[in-house]
Write a structure and sequence with these properties.
With about 140 residues, the chain is an all-alpha fold. About 45% of the residues lie in helices and about 5% in strands. It has seven helices and two strands. The protein is elongated and about 85 Å long.
């Protein structure tokens, strides 16, 4: 089954498979399946054409995939233009919701980079220092 350019896995249950769509989570799936009158325990490959159409019709009232991504990106851009605290955190690629950054936030900040004393061999590799011949 393909919805808005996303292939849903055939062997998954319908309630799990629909959560592969950006903007549809486990809670939204219940409402979608209720409106479409489709059983949640069914596999995606077992859905009939009529059930697939009913699911797609129920999904039309949700903002999902591309539209939602554009809206979220616009919200972040607006925060940056306002120079709000959250906008500045987004611009600096730091956590925006008050998480600590001294010891955590590795996924947001990236790999650790040691700043300070470096070994002579590393300085030579980086081109900071030149290699001097050893004198006795």
């Amino acid at each position: 089954m393909r919805i808005l350019g996303v292939n849903l896995p055939d062997n998954k249950r319908v309630d799990i498979g629909l959560s592969y769509l950006y903007g549809i989570g486990r809670n939204n799936v219940k409402g979608v399946l209720g409106k479409a009158e489709v059983e949640a325990a069914k596999r995606i490959k077992d859905l009939t054409e009529d059930e697939q159409k009913r699911i797609q019709k129920a999904l039309e009232e949700y903002k999902i995939e591309g539209d939602l991504r554009v809206e979220v990106a616009g919200n972040i851009k607006r925060l940056k233009e306002l120079s709000s605290y959250r906008g500045m955190r987004h611009a600096k690629n730091l956590p925006a919701r008050g998480q600590r950054t001294k010891s955590n936030a590795r996924t947001k900040r990236g790999k650790r980079v040691t700043i300070g004393a470096i070994k002579k061999e590393m300085a030579v590799k980086m081109g900071i220092a030149t290699e001097e011949p050893a004198t006795k």
